[in-house]
Amino acid sequence: MESKIFTKLLIFGAMNTAAFMFSQNTENDTITRGKAIDEVVVTGNSNPKASIKTSTSISTLKMKDIENAAPRTTAEIFRTIPGIRSESSGGEGNSNITVRGVPVSAGGSRYLLIQEDGLPVMQFGDIAFGTQDQFTRFDSFVSRVEALRGGSASVFASNSPAGIINFITKTGEKEGGSITQQMGLNYKNYRTDFDYGTKIGDDTYMAVGGFYRIGDGPRKTGFNSNNGGQFRLSLLKKFEKGSFRIYAKVLDDRTAAYMPMPVGVTGTDADPKWSSLPNYNILTGALQTINLQHDRTLGNDGNIFNTDVSDGMHSLSKVIGAEFNYNLGEGWKLEEKIRYAANGGQFVAPFPASVSKGSDFFNTANFANFGSAVYAGTNTPVDMNANYMKIALFNVKLNNFNNFVNDFNISKKWDVVKFNAGLYKSSQNINMSWMWNNYLQEVSDKNARLIDVKNTAGQYITDNGLLNYGMKDWGNLKRDYNTKYDITAPHAQVEINATDKLTIDAGARYDIGKVTGYFSGATVTYTSRDMNGNGVIDIPEQMVGSNDNINIPVNYRYGIFGYSMGANYALNNKNAVFARVSRGGSASADRILFSGYNYTNNDDPALDAVKVNKVNQVEAGYKLRGSGYFLNTTLFYAGTKEANYEATTQKKTENKYQSFGVELDGYYKITQGLDVKAGLTYTHAEIKNAIDPTIIGNMPRRTPKLMYSVNPNFNANKFNVGFYLIGATKAFTQDNNKLVMPGYAIVNPYVSYQVLKNLSVSLNANNIFNTIAVTEAEEGSIAGGNGIVRARTLPGASYSVSVKFDL
Fold it and tell me: Which residues form the TonB-dependent receptor plug domain (predicted)?
């Protein structure tokens, strides 16, 4: 199979060469829909320029591209970008995102940073239950999205060695705006986006925008699980030698978090058949239920903590920022970006700790002295032939995720040289409380019922479905994190236009990190307490999980040296080749806490080995432009060394990975009204070293060899129609390389019509053929199992209609 793929790549390379030869005699021309690729890009460049003149791989998504793709979440925006793997099955946050075979360790996006206007949303992309996409929302206030893949990101941002995705917002310089009303057709979703920009004085501009929505999303939770919105404001003042901008954002949004679900799997590990279980549709179902909307647990402060489970991922963010740039004269320029964000909220989601048929689920090995089981609140015995789950209710209070970021730059430009030096300063709080409980619940996507169990003496060992106050199976998990990550990073870049055709650039960055604070809850502690207030210590209340209140101090430092050197050679005004070598890293944040290291000894080699994750990269590519087409071809290599700790498996890992492959990004205008955009990424990845020697030589989990997207688009006068085909080949669920997640291709069509000059109507669909697309799974094999695997899939078919009024 691989030989066939390589043969196709060789053929494609020959096509590149032929296109290059042809382009020598064609006239220079601009292209329409693909023109965005050659626009001036600002992300990951000290000297903004057209992408063909850079030695980087960067894509620009315009508003219309994103609207056509109809993303239901922020992470779904990224799935059409070549080289980026975005596992957007978790809802509006908690998504796993990575680039070019760099591994997804446990969750989030450790090696890729999401920015808004050039500054990070969060300083770390993989904070447990507080990932950066949870605090990022796309709305019509966004002007464009720039996605940088590769090593140059190492010197332009901290903790982003694999790439940067930058949301660039509107400033009001372009007069006008829009109001868009969107409604789900086969699911409940009502959303309004708005934005408006105008000139309010001499060289002074204002822009406002945001969104509000309510509904239950593409999966049926039984309640309004999506409820909230965002408001943004920008004020810009331009003057003769520069500009000053101040902006603000307020986000208050509740969305459902989708955890792995029970999925039926038959066949063999190498050739599995994935399907829905009785009473549960894996394309539309959710583990949330109206019968579990309130959770009572013992807070880590010793008081009872009540939670509305329907809050789900509750993201709160209040942001204020400013940008200042000034031309000092004689080639000198000053740039300053500063921002403060007050972030917090909560993360509540049911996770299936175990799933099986009733006859197995309630056996005495699982429940000592099992007598009987009934549906909670009734005397109706459970169906022993149905499926049941032990739920771990992830209940995490995001107390304080505030961050402060400042990036100061000064540059000097000579005839052929531009030098930039700067100082980056940031602080990131990670203060959260884990307060998990165990529940028993049937497997159903229609108002799933909770289960109560009696022992042989007829006593309830549960309380309305609640089995344990705490999470006994995983060591209680009544945790408190209270740490602060302080980063000081001097950086410098130089760009030399050696000749009219050759540009050379080099940059370096050194992150000086200081981590302070403490955490508690490392040991299992239980207490007896009347949690429900009935005056009796019931069986579930005899061992209530509690925080041990033993504060383990954290006080260590780390350093990350990153560099990137690249060269771009323009063969002519349509062809360029480039190469780049880079090194960078990402600091381990909360993921290494509770792993047993000495967090106050900077000289401890065990801690030193895990506090920084390192990535080395090599890239080489060819960029082709012509009349009505472009093609970017990039060969890449990445070597990664990382450490991690996963709460749900209680496993500590220290692995080395290697990946290489090719990334293709193209556009072709077939006729005046018909064009196609496409991207393809081939990756060969391998685990080179690990604590577990049995996985050495295997492919990293959830890494497909081939990812692709194709977008044909037809535009005739007022009518526009097209579709996105997004797919990936098979991958393994775990590093043991046994159970296969099948390849998939999902189709997302769209059609729009310009009714009036300022009024348009659009119809969009996602996964129109209800393809089962598995993105992750907990189990590594079906051998010896019960035919049920806990996995996350992309949602099934969803349809929406929107009406847009241009102001």
Answer: 53-164
* pLDDT confidence band for 40 (50 / 70 / 90): low
Q: Cα 647 vs. chain centroid, distance in angstroms?
A: 19
- 24-38, 217-231, 253-267, 281-295: lowest mean pLDDT where? 24-38
Q: CA 13 to CA 6: how far, in whole Å?
A: 10
Q: What is the DSSP string of 72-91?
A: SSHHHHGGGSTTEEEE--SB
Contact 739, 779 (CB under 8 A): yes
- Helices of type H across 24-157: 63-69, 74-77, 153-156
The pLDDT score that the predictor gives to residue 38 is 56
Q: 3-state DSSP call for residue 70?
A: coil
Question: Are 308 and 293 a contacting pair, CB within 8 Å?
Answer: yes
Calculate the CA dihedral of residues 15, 18, 23, 29 and round it to 10 degrees: -20
For 436-481, write each residue's pLDDT tens digit. Answer: 999 999 999 999 999 999 999 999 999 999 999 998 888 888 999 9
- Tokens 């009505």 — which residue? 628
Report the DSSP pairing between strands 112-116 and 163-169: parallel
> Side chain identity at 212, as an amino acid letter?
Y
User: What mean pLDDT is reported for the chain?
Assistant: 90
402 Cβ contact partners less than 8 Å away, ≥ 6 residues apart: 340, 341, 342, 343, 344, 428, 429
CA dist., res. 681 & res. 701, Å (int): 17
Residue 360 main-chain phi, psi, to 5 deg: -95, -35
Tokens representing residue 519 in the block: 């955490």
The residue among 654 and 623 whose pLDDT is bigger is: 623
Residues in contact with 186: Cβ distance below 8 Å, sequence separation at least 6, in sequence order: 797, 798, 799
Average pLDDT over residues 541-550: 93
Provide CB contacts within 8 A for 509, sequence distance 6+.
Answer: 154, 155, 156, 158, 424, 489, 490, 491, 560, 561, 562, 563, 584
Question: DSSP string spanning 399-444?
Answer: EE--EEEEEEEEEEE-SSEEEEEEEEEEEEEEEEEEE-EEEEEES-
Q: Please check the confidence at residue 29 and state whether its pLDDT lies above 60.
A: no
- How many residues in the chain? 807
Three-state SS annotation for 513-525? EEEEEEEECCCCE
Give the domains, in start order, of the chain with CATH numbers: 42-806 (2.40.170.20)
**Structural tokens at position 467:** 């089995």
DSSP 280: B
With 0-12 / 13-18 / 19 or more C-beta atoms within 10 angstroms meaning exposed / middle / buried, residue 717 is exposed
The whole-angstrom separation of Cα 35 and Cα 43 is 17
CA distances from 580 to 48, 53, 498, 504, 583 (A): 18, 14, 16, 10, 10
Residues in contact with 359: Cβ distance below 8 Å, sequence separation at least 6, in sequence order: 384, 385
Q: Which single residue is written with the structure tokens 């089995």?
A: 467
Question: How far from each other are the two terminal CA atoms of the chain, in whole angstroms?
Answer: 53
| pLDDT given for residue 423 in this prediction | 97
Residue 42 corresponds to which tokens in the numbers above? 């600002």
Helix (H, G, I), strand (E, B) or coil at 616: strand
Instruction: Copy the structure tokens of residue 47.
Output: 């000297």
Q: Compute the distance between CA of residue 260 and CA of residue 771 in angstroms, rounded to an integer.
A: 17
Closest CA to 44 of 144, 122, 150, 126: 150
Continuous segment of H or E residues that includes residue 755: strand 744-756
Report the distance separating Cα 734 and Cα 699, nearest Å.
9
Tokens 């789950």, residue?
A: 389
Q: Determine contact, residues 735/700, Cβ cutoff 8 Å.
A: yes
d(CA 586, CA 485): 13
Is residue 586 within 8 Å of residue 159, measured between CB atoms?
yes
- Closest listed residue to residue 276, CA positions, set 133, 358, 440, 387: 387
100: left (phi over 0), alpha (psi -120 to 50) or beta: left
